[in-house]
């Protein structure tokens, strides 16, 4: 288990499974463009593997545990100085995430094909 940073004692990890590696990578690229506005909050993104049916993440990109096609989980790690700062940052992230997912749903051909009834 990672040690707690005394300067940023409040933390949260958000794992978002997406249908394909391409969509996970696109979401990562779209979201990481915006820096955190406050120096009291730190955020980092990564893609992780999902190797089993339960959706448990079994690795982080760069650790050599799977193929790129299995990198379908967008992991966002937040650290903040206070719970309030963490909450404010995560609320902003969720708004941005909603926009990114909405655009994917409306404009991405693969998403439409996967959600269409047979």
From TrEMBL:
Q: Which organism is it from?
A: Endocarpon pusillum (strain Z07020 / HMAS-L-300199)
Identify this protein by name: Uncharacterized protein
InterPro entries noted in UniProt: CTAG/Pcc1
Q: Mention any one GO cellular component term assigned to this protein in its UniProt record.
A: EKC/KEOPS complex
In the record, biological process GO terms are: tRNA threonylcarbamoyladenosine metabolic process
Assigned protein family: Belongs to the CTAG/PCC1 family.
What Pfam families does the entry give? Pcc1
């Amino acid at each position: 288990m990672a040690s707690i940073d005394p300067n940023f004692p409040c933390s949260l990890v958000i794992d978002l499974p997406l249908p394909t590696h391409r969509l996970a990578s696109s979401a990562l690229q779209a979201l990481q463009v915006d820096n955190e506005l406050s120096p009291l909050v730190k955020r980092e993104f990564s893609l992780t593997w999902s190797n089993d049916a339960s959706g448990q993440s079994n690795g982080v990109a760069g650790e050599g545990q799977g193929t790129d096609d299995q990198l379908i989980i967008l992991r966002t790690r937040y650290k903040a100085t206070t719970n309030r700062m963490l909450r404010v940052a995560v609320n902003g992230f969720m708004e941005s995430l909603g926009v990114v997912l909405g655009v994917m749903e409306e404009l991405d051909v693969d998403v439409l094909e996967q959600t269409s009834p047979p």
